[in-house]
Amino acid sequence: MSDYDLPPSVAEQKHSVSGKSPVDWQSEVKNFWFIDVLVVLVFLTTAVLSIYMFRQDLMLTLESRDENPVGTIIIRNNIIQRRYADRVIWERLFVDSPVYSGDLIRAADLSDATIHLNENEVSLNENTLIRIQQSHDGSGSFQVDLREGNLSVTTSAESVSGAGIVLNIMGREVQTAPGTVLSAELGDEGMVVQVTEGEAVFIEEGETRQLSEGTMIAKDSRGVERKIAAAVVTRPQPNARYLLNSQEGLPVDFAWKRINLDAEETLRLEIASDRNFSRDLQILDGLVEKAQMKIDAGNWHWRLLHQDAVLRAGELTVTDASGPELLSPAFSATFRYQNDLPQLRFQWSERPGASHYILEVSWAQDFSTLQMSRQVSAVSFISSELGPGTWHWRVRPVFPSNYNGKADYSEVSNFQIEQTVDTKAPVFELPVNVPKREPPRPPRSPARQRELAPVAAPVQGRNYTVKRGDTLSKIADFVYGDSKMWRRIFQANDISDPDLIHVNQVLFIP
Length: 510
Description:
This protein is mostly beta strands. The chain contains 5 helices and 36 strands.
């Protein structure tokens, strides 16, 4: 029962206790309704504005596709985002993503990326924000504004376009010469610029200063120059990437120029597989200006210390660039056909970090003449252009240009193609007890053994459902820890062609 349904005497007594008359209560109810309507209007306005801004951002994104990109992402780890000009939305970037003039690009925590700008490269470390700009006609240098974090810049020594990189940091300009490698960082304590290779010009309020190899400049947040103990590392280059072609570790040279350090003071070099320097830690002490460490494949963190103070830190990557394992066609397999040439599926193991692969097929064992040479971005290739004969094939991974070293070819495998008129002849034949000869390999280092340790095999005597990308060799490696045992699966399932298994096919694992 409401107050309006009560007898007058009761209602008056109730409102006399609260101190409010019926008119006051009606006024408060109207106020509540007004506030509710106002809140709804605010939310609707916000929603309409958000949709409008999203539409505008979407239109700008579509329009930007008509622009010519100024660069490309060639390496990306974890989260890298881009926001173009005055847009609102950040979008994810991936390898081969285009970069446009006016882009804001940021690397999140535990993330990094390398951007190719003409013949130049800019590498962003974690928690770094930059803006890239170039004139509309594509001429002149690239302007890279460092907003926060740290980066490295590498300019081409043989630039055809002449478009170098000008780094803007705290209102100062750093102009790079051809063949310059430098690093810069900007944080709460100010800025630091170090030249690893070549030379650069530091410009502040119209005054110029030459920065040669092994020199640096440091300023606090107010622009006052700081005198700090430091080591300008000239080798390895920032975020260096190496290719490893042997089972032994790769010797990596470290060299640096000492700044504001006494001659008798020695340094300590530490390298580890984690940023906390707790795993696979190697230490060299009593160093002056150079050192060498043998490093296995992996991502590594290093730091150079004076006593317990870190003078310089960085990362480097050593990538396994040995030839991939050839999976199919199987070694010494025979393919028969009657009319149409057989369709062959070439497949090999993946090499992480490779941008693409070179597949070569030849009559000759030394590949002096090539019947087929293909650049393949995946780890397989289907072809029906080979005729009768014995064919030799191999694969070489290819890595981006900022890797030091060269990848190896795989071992050579072979197969035969025969034309037959016998309708009962098997289409595919694998020779029995013809193992592929492999040269003996040197023993692996402990870190390499941990990297290549096989996955524990599941219980045998069960069914296995084929997934996308599976081959009999890959399944055998997963099940038995030995890819060469694929014949057990092949024979147990009465498969006519080991190269023709399909997704969701159920295989019995003996």
